[in-house]
Write a sequence for this structure.
């Protein structure tokens, strides 16, 4: 019997470090149940690991020095050529696929406009946002979604700087991004800001804000400079991760979470409201609260989600929708469903 | 016992295809390790910078699809060994600054007594043991990754790890911190 083999000193450490296979792990656990001294050692070793993180994890939140940042960017460029997993949108076939997806989505998909319900010519709206910008925006949303997957999956790297001092956090991230960015107040929809991190993106830097609700469900808001015109909300579903993204002022926003489309839309709306109510808003209608996004037509349902029925309760019925919508400025494809990328 | 050499990076690699994010995470990890190893902000930053410079110069030697984190840690380790060696060749350069700043290194967060004792215990370890403990317990590297990057047999890694943990344990017990947190 394999499990009957005596537990070795090495296996004890491998157990502590999570480097032991299932069979032997059980054997160690059985042994520990009968050996209080060994159990004490295991607990002490684990406590050491916890202490090490307690002492040194703050380094993860320290901003890189400029030379190191430059070197990081350089290395990123050098290695990207070398890597068999290039940035996804650099691959020619992805560009092709994205272009095809745009056409398909434009032909069949609905979208969320920000305005009051109004018949909209999809083709016309698509023309309003140049294809290049659409592509950049999609690439941005994809990058933001990947960052979300990564940083919500490993709690060691969740945030670079906590939100204890929000001014400090916002100033730091604004500096990194080169624009005035801030973490919107989402308390009204039940999410509190945990902190943020700066992230290298295709060109320059973006800011990722992380929020959690009472159930410790995490969502992230990714903000990055974006030239071009403003756009309305677009939606993407990648596996179980949902993303809304849009452009407001000179910034692109992507809100990501493992939430239903409706739930995430509600949070997106809260983000949007808070962004618009900040000082120095872009030219906007006089309403403090912008009209709720409304479905213009049934969207092509993302895989795994039931199509929305016309008679279904609208999540935003109760919001004030009177007032002129912001000028209609382009529409993004809504249901660019991808198969979940590596999760 | 120990998993395959590429286990760790494959696991994270599968989760993200964004190379930039992966690289950034590994560099954050390098910086933490350097700080824990040298216990001095400036020295640690210099070490990481030097390692990154060399990584850029040797980017061609990185094989696509292999373990990026291990590659970076190996470079950092080699740079560190060279730095120690060249310092040893110039014995006059007593490192007063770093000794001093080691004593006054301000901690960002409120430190528990145990955390301070932990730092002291780490500092007292022979460097070869300190490296192994930090790479395994703090950075989560696999045993065979550590063996490969330090250039020693895996048995040596295991015995250094065991001695390091027992030494720290004895030290923490001696300091009277009997309340050392139990982790479930």
């Amino acid at each position: 019997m394999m499990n009957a083999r005596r537990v070795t000193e090495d296996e004890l450490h491998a157990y502590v470090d999570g480097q032991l296979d299932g069979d032997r792990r059980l054997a160690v656990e059985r042994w520990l149940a009968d050996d209080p001294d060994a159990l004490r050692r295991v607990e002490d070793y684990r406590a050491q690991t916890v202490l090490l993180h307690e002492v040194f994890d703050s380094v993860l939140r320290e901003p890189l020095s400029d030379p190191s940042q430059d070197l990081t960017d350089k290395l990123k460029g050098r290695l990207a050529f070398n890597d068999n997993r290039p940035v996804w949108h650099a691959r020619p076939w992805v560009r092709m696929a994205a272009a095809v997806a745009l056409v398909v989505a434009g032909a069949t998909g609905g979208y969320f406009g920000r305005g009051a319900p109004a018949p909209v010519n999809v083709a016309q709206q698509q023309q309003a946002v140049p294809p290049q910008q659409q592509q950049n925006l999609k690439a941005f949303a994809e990058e933001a979604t990947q960052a979300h997957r990564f940083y919500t999956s490993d709690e060691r790297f969740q945030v670079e700087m906590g939100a204890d001092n929000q001014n400090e956090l916002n100033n730091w991230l604004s500096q990194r991004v080169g624009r005035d960015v801030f973490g919107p107040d989402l308390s009204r929809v039940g999410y509190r800001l945990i902190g943020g991190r700066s992230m290298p993106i295709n060109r320059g830097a973006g800011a990722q804000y992380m929020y959690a609700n009472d159930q410790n469900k995490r969502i992230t808001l990714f903000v990055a400079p974006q030239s071009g015109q403003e756009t309305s909300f677009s939606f993407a579903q990648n596996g179980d991760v949902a993303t809304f993204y849009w452009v407001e002022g000179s910034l692109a926003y992507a809100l990501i979470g493992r939430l239903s489309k409706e739930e995430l839309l509600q949070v997106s709306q809260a983000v949007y409201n808070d962004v618009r109510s900040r000082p120095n808003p872009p030219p906007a209608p006089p309403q403090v609260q912008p009209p709720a996004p409304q479905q213009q037509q049934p969207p092509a349902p993302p895989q795994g989600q039931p199509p929305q029925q016309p008679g279904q309760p609208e999540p935003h019925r109760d919001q004030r929708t009177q007032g002129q919508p912001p000028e209609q400025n382009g529409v993004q494809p809504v249901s660019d469903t991808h198969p979940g990328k590596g999760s | 016992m120990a998993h395959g050499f590429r286990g760790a990076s494959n696991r994270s690699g599968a989760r993200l295809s964004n190379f930039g994010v992966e690289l950034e995470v590994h560099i954050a990890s390098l910086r933490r390790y350097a700080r824990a190893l040298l216990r001095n902000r400036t020295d640690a930053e210099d070490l990481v910078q030097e390692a990154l410079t060399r990584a850029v110069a040797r980017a061609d030697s990185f094989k696509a699809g292999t373990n990026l984190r291990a590659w970076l840690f190996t470079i950092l380790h080699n740079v560190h060994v060279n730095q120690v060696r060249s310092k040893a060749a110039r014995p006059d350069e007593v490192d007063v600054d770093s000794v001093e700043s080691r004593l006054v290194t301000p901690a960002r967060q409120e430190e528990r007594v145990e955390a301070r004792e932990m730092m002291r215990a780490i500092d007292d370890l022979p460097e070869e043991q300190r490296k192994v403990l930090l790479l395994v317990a703090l950075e989560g590297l696999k045993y065979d990754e550590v063996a490969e990057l330090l250039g020693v047999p895996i048995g040596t890694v295991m015995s250094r790890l065991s001695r390091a943990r027992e030494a720290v344990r004895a030290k923490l017990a001696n300091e009277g911190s009997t309340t050392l947190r139990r982790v479930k």
User: Anything to note?
Assistant: Chain B has a mean pLDDT of 78. The radius of gyration of chain B is 17 Å. Chain B is about 70% helix and 0% strand. Chain B touches chain A through 67 residues (CB under 8 Å).
